[in-house]
Write a structure and sequence with these properties.
Layout (H helix, E strand, L loop, with lengths): L7 H12 L2 H21 L16
């Protein structure tokens, strides 16, 4: 399958460098997750998607 999009592995290093390095990317990811989590915790339970339950029998 051919696409016009570059592979992530081919462009990631440049994007990380332009974004301020690995620490900056990790910090941005953490901020995004905190934002998502804060909105999920503010939703009424009836509107939340069901959580997956573990199927392990241990």
């Amino acid at each position: 399958m051919m696409t016009d999009f570059p592979k992530w592995s081919d462009i990631r290093a440049d994007l990380v460098e332009r974004s301020g390095g690995e620490e900056a990317v990790a910090a941005a990811g953490q901020r995004n997750q905190e934002y998502i989590d804060s909105h999920l915790s503010a939703e009424p339970m009836a509107h939340r998607p069901p959580r997956l339950r573990s199927t392990s029998t241990s």
